[in-house]
Design brief:
This protein is an alpha/beta fold. Helices cover 41% and strands 14% of the residues. It has a 6-stranded mixed sheet. α2 crosses α9 and α3 packs across α6.
C-alpha cells in the first residue's frame, strides 16, 4: 500500500506478467490468486492528493491499472511480433509497435477500469466487487472500441478446462471476467479487518456455484444422430514464408489435394465435407479453372470442399479490384456453390486504417499479397449440402462472441478456419484455440476448426476437443459432427446476464461504502 514511484510501477507490471501464467498454454490459474490481490493492495494506496482535482485524485489508480495491464498484455501478446518476422526485411522495424505499442494501448482499458473502481473504493469487500465490475466493463469495451480486440480477456483465466467454461452460457465472457476478478482478488481480504468474512464467503459461494453449474451442465446427454455428417479437417502445415512464392504454389496445392484424397479414418467412414484452413488455396481460384477441375477430380461423389481462399471482385469503370478473405463451398463437380467473406478484418494485418494518410509514410498491411482486403458488407451462414448451416468465423473472428450468433438456427455449426502459421510455435495459437472453444460453449454449437499449422479440432458444445491435431503437425482429422445442445442463451441474453452480474457487484460496492461510516461492511 505504501509503495510509490518506480517501485509501484514495477510491482504493478510484475503482477500483470504473473497473470499471464493463467493463460494458455500454461493455464496455471492459481497465479491469479497472487497477482490480483497485489493489484488490490496497490490500489489501496493509490489515492491522489485531496487538492489535485477530480482527475488528479484518480491518476495514481489509473497509472497502477495501466502498468498492470501493460505487463499483462506484453506478456500475453509478445508473440504478435513473430508475424512481422515472416518478412523481416520489410516489417522488422515495426516490432516495437506490435510488442510494446499495442499492449500500451490495450492497457488504457485496465487503467480506466482501476480508476473507475477507485471511485467506489472502501476498505472492505466492496472494493473487490468494484474492481470486478470495472474490469467486466473494460472487457466489454474491448469488444467494440478501437475496432475491437478482446484477446485474452481476464475471464479466460478462470476457464482453463471445459468444466469451468460452462457458466459462460449464462453470462458470456464479460460475465466470466467479473467472476474471475472477484474470486481471484478475494484473498486480499485476508489482511482486511472490515468485511473479510462475508467477502471471502461470497467468493467461495461463487466458485462453488460456478463449478457446480459446470458439473451439472456437462452431465447433459447429447444424442448423436446416426446420419451425422463426417468432416475431414486438413492441416497442411504450410510454411508461411513460402506460401505465396510463385514457385511453391503448385506444390502446396498438390499437397492439399493429396491430404484430401487420403483413405477414410476408421471408424468415422467416408468424409462428407473436407475443410481447408484460411487462405489455404495459394492463388485465385477463379483465375485458375484448372484448379477447380482438379478439385472435382479429387472429390468423391457427394463430397463438398470448404476451402479458405482469396475471393476477388473485379472493379468496374476504372475502380480497383476488391479482395476478400473468404470460405468457398465447392461441389464434387468443381462448381463454387457458396461463399462467405470475412467481416471483421485485422487492423494493419489485413487492412490499413486511415489508408490514404498512412500510405504516405510507406506503411502497408502485413498480409500484403493483394494489397489488403475488403470487409464483407453482409454476414450470412454458409448453406452446405444436406441443409446444414455453418456460421463462418474466419481467423480471429472467433474471439468476437456476437459474430458467432449471426443467422443462428438449431442445425448450425461453427466453422472456424484460420492460419496461425504466422506466429510459429508461440502461445498465440494456444490462446486462439482456447477462445474458439469458449465460443462453442457460449452458443451450445459444435465447432469444426481447421488451422494451417494447428491447432485443428472437432469441438463439441461443451468445449471438449473430441478429435484434434497438434500444433506443427501435418495430416487430417476425420470425425462426425457432434450434435448441438438445445438452444440455451442467445448473445443478447448472455449480455443481460453480464449486466445483471455487473449491477449486483456495483450495489455491493455502494453498500460497502455506505455502511463504512456506520461500522459495518
Amino acid at each position: 500500500m505504501l509503495t510509490w514511484g518506480w517501485r509501484r510501477m514495477a510491482l504493478a507490471f510484475s503482477a500483470g506478467l504473473v497473470s499471464v501464467l493463467a493463460l494458455p498454454p500454461v493455464n496455471f490459474f492459481p497465479a491469479m490468486f497472487v497477482s490480483l490481490p497485489v493489484l488490490v493492495w496497490l490500489l489501496d494506496g493509490a489515492s491522489g492528493s485531496a487538492d489535485a482535482g477530480f482527475l488528479g485524485r484518480l491518476r495514481p489508480a489509473f497509472a497502477t491499472g495501466w502498468w498492470f495491464g501493460f505487463g499483462y498484455f506484453v506478456g500475453g501478446l509478445w508473440w504478435l511480433g513473430a508475424a512481422l518476422l515472416v518478412e523481416a526485411d520489410v516489417f522488422a522495424w515495426a516490432l516495437p509497435l506490435a510488442v510494446l505499442g499495442l499492449p500500451a494501448v490495450l492497457a488504457l482499458f485496465y487503467g480506466v477500469a482501476t480508476a473507475l473502481a477507485r471511485l467506489l473504493w472502501g476498505d472492505g469487500f466492496g472494493r473487490i466487487a468494484a474492481l470486478a465490475a470495472a474490469f467486466g466493463l473494460a472487457e466489454f469495451g474491448r469488444e467494440f472500441l478501437l475496432s475491437g480486440f478482446p484477446w485474452n480477456a481476464l475471464g479466460m483465466t478462470v476457464m482453463p478446462a471445459p468444466l469451468m467454461m460452462q457458466p459462460a452460457r449464462l453470462v458470456g465472457l464479460d460475465g466470466m471476467t467479473v467472476l474471475a476478478v472477484y474470486i481471484f482478488a478475494s484473498p486480499a481480504l485476508i489482511a482486511t479487518r472490515r468485511g473479510a468474512l462475508p467477502g471471502l464467503g461470497l467468493a467461495a459461494a461463487l466458485l462453488v456455484a460456478s463449478l457446480g453449474y459446470g458439473w451439472q451442465a456437462m452431465r447433459q446427454e447429447i444424442v448423436q444422430a446416426d446420419e451425422a455428417p463426417v468432416f475431414r479437417i486438413v492441416q497442411p502445415d504450410i510454411d508461411q514464408a513460402a506460401k505465396w512464392q510463385p514457385g511453391d504454389r503448385e506444390a502446396i496445392f498438390d499437397d492439399l489435394l493429396k491430404l484430401t484424397a487420403l483413405p477414410p479414418e476408421s471408424p468415422a467412414g467416408r468424409p462428407d465435407f473436407i475443410v481447408w484452413p484460411e487462405t489455404a488455396v495459394p492463388f485465385l481460384l477463379t483465375d485458375n479453372p484448372g484448379a477447380l477441375a482438379r478439385i472435382a477430380a479429387t472429390l468423391e461423389p457427394g463430397q463438398a470442399l470448404l476451402a479458405g481462399a482469396v475471393r476477388v471482385e473485379n472493379g468496374q469503370s476504372g475502380t480497383p479490384d476488391r479482395y476478400y478473405n473468404s470460405i468457398y463451398v465447392i461441389s464434387d463437380s468443381g462448381e463454387i456453390i457458396g461463399a462467405a467473406d470475412k467481416a471483421h478484418l485485422v487492423p494493419f494485418g489485413e487492412y490499413l486504417p486511415f489508408e490514404s494518410l498512412l500510405k504516405r509514410f510507406g506503411l502497408e498491411t502485413v498480409a500484403r499479397s493483394f494489397g489488403g482486403f475488403s470487409a464483407a458488407e453482409t454476414r450470412d451462414p454458409l448453406k452446405l449440402p444436406g441443409e446444414i448451416n455453418a456460421i463462418p468465423l474466419i481467423c480471429y473472428e472467433a474471439i468476437f462472441p456476437a459474430l458467432a450468433e449471426i443467422g443462428r438456427s438449431r442445425d448450425d455449426l461453427l466453422l472456424n478456419v484460420t492460419n496461425d502459421g504466422w506466429f510459429g510455435h508461440t502461445p498465440g495459437p494456444y490462446q486462439h484455440f482456447q477462445q474458439a472453444r469458449i465460443r462453442a460453449v457460449e452458443t451450445g454449437l459444435p465447432m469444426i476448426r481447421a488451422a494451417n499449422s494447428g491447432i485443428s479440432a472437432v469441438i463439441d458444445p461443451f468445449g471438449r476437443a473430441l478429435r484434434m491435431f497438434p500444433l506443427g503437425a501435418k495430416g487430417v482429422v476425420d470425425a462426425p459432427l457432434p450434435a448441438a445442445l438445445p438452444p440455451l442463451n442467445a448473445y443478447e441474453n448472455r449480455q443481460l446476464g453480464f449486466w445483471g452480474f455487473f449491477t449486483i457487484m456495483v450495489l455491493f460496492a455502494l453498500t460497502s461504502r455506505g455502511s463504512k461510516g456506520m461500522g459495518r461492511d
